[in-house]
Design goal:
Layout: H1 3-12, H2 25-30, E1 39-43, H3 49-56, E2 60-65, H4 68-77, E3 81-85, E4 99-105, H5 113-126, E5 127-137, E6 151-154, E7 157-159, E8 165-167, H6 171-178, E9 182-191, E10 201-208
Parallel strand pairs: 1-2, 1-4, 2-3, 4-5
Antiparallel strand pairs: 5-10, 6-7, 7-8, 9-10
Length: about 220
């Protein structure tokens, strides 16, 4: 991923799209799985629509994004949210067990398998015991990966004609990354967004598993 691409996307498209400023379909679907109060980390907040929704319900919200333009735009518009510019691939700069919920809307499908594993481990680390991880991602059923100019890099992972890499999860492949770390509450391919017509996005809600250590 390049910062130039994402800054341009937010300046030219997302900041001018009505759907970017309101709660996503997924946020409204999964908030009932969250504790009634607590601290939420929103990874890949974009224009901050979901972060704003969560803070309006009384949650303490920390929101991150890779794009400077996303952070600049959302922080000017959304109140009572702490915004941070973070490259998720380089690690989450937060303490262990800092959050009751880690949430991400369409922002965790840009990484190779090794990096995806590291990110999920990091999400597990920053969650409190029994904390909730909720995310919606690309689907393996997306026909765009079959278009001219898409190049397969590894199973489920492609580069588009603009050089942006994307992972297309199936229920099974998502489980392979998440099931050892999180107790599955919901995992299906019934996700939708306002932005696209696809109705088979991968939805996941899980609770952090606790591993006892022996000495």
């Amino acid at each position: 991923m390049t910062s130039t691409y994402w800054n341009g996307a937010h300046t030219e498209r997302y900041s001018k799209s009505d759907w970017a400023f309101k709660p996503s379909i997924f946020a409204k679907e999964v908030v009932n799985f969250f504790p009634k109060q607590g601290k939420i980390l929103d990874i890949g907040t974009g224009q901050g629509g979901d972060a704003d929704f969560f803070q309006s319900l009384g949650y303490e919200v920390v929101a991150t994004d890779y794009a400077d333009e996303a952070i600049s735009s959302s922080s000017k518009r959304v109140q009572n949210v702490s915004f941070h510019n973070v490259d998720t691939a380089n690690g989450l700069p937060f303490a262990d067990s800092a959050f009751d919920v880690v949430y991400s809307h369409m922002a965790l499908h840009y990484f190779d398998a090794e990096t995806t594993k590291k990110i999920f481990l990091d999400i597990h680390r920053v969650l409190k015991p029994a904390g909730v991880f909720a995310t919606i991602t690309n689907t393996i059923d997306d026909p765009e990966k079959e278009e001219d100019g898409y190049k397969k890099i590894e199973d489920g992972y492609y580069q588009d004609p603009q050089g942006i890499t994307k992972r297309y999860f199936s229920v099974q492949s998502f489980s392979s990354f998440a099931s050892s770390l999180f107790e599955v509450v919901m995992l299906d391919d019934k996700g939708t967004t306002y932005k696209d017509d696809i109705e088979t996005l991968i939805r996941f809600v899980g609770k952090k598993k606790i591993y006892e250590t022996t000495t």
